[in-house]
Write a structure and sequence with these properties.
The structure is a single chain. The protein is an alpha+beta fold. The chain folds into two domains: 3-127, Yope Regulator, Chain: A (2-Layer Sandwich); 130-259, Trna Endonuclease, Chain: A, domain 1 (3-Layer(aba) Sandwich). Helices cover 41% and strands 20% of the residues. The chain is built from eight helices and eleven strands. The strands form two sheets. The chain has a six-stranded antiparallel sheet. The N and C termini lie far apart (68 Å).
Amino acid sequence: MNLETITSDFKRKVCSEIRLEPEGVERFRVFTPFHFDDGDHLAMVLKQDGDRWILSDEGHTFMHLTYDIDERDLQKGTRQKIISNALAAFFVEDREGELQIPIPDDRYGDALYNFVQALLRISDISYLSRERVRSTFMEDFIDLMDATVPEERRAFNWSDPEHDPEGKYQVDCRVNSMARPYFIYALPSDGKVRDATISLLKFESWNIPHHSIAIFEDQEQINRKVLARFSDICEKQFSSLGANRERIARYIKEGMNFEG
């Protein structure tokens, strides 16, 4: 291989601010101006893999995303769809977390262009709009309930059929078959917290036995007055889902076994 020819092809097909630095045998570090939202540059190497040359991130992209996102959340829901679509669109392979693209017919520049586009598309997960983040939060909440509570003991978007036939006052997930069922709320916003407060006050006025549990997307983002009113009526709160996933599951399972 001719390093100058490859570098020239990289610059012609991608951008002029690219350079290659030798790093061991048949291995070169690829430096580009592209980076994640926090300023860290995309990590790429050009290396020989058997009888072919490939570009690889050596696992850096997913590792970087897991600084802020639970690794399990990358493998499902909206995030997983974004990743799968990016890999398919730009012919990138996922080898157990290492992203790779083979160099077809010495087309080094084309391969680098596709690889950069795929990594940037995947890194866009960090830029999800607030609405998209909320959608993944609700997906993550439902997945957690599915994994924690047997299907016959849970009901999503439950409302009391006797007092509330129109379903105005809903519970995100009701865990039943208990003397005092769990009323579990997933709370991504001030508005949702206000709705949950009103619903819990209604259930209290109707003398419906229950234990209330709140799971916030990020409790620190909730208005203090809204949170204070909610805290007066809710029994158990978890400040976030991602960092408390195992703690939440354990708390619910222990309550189910004790009262079930």
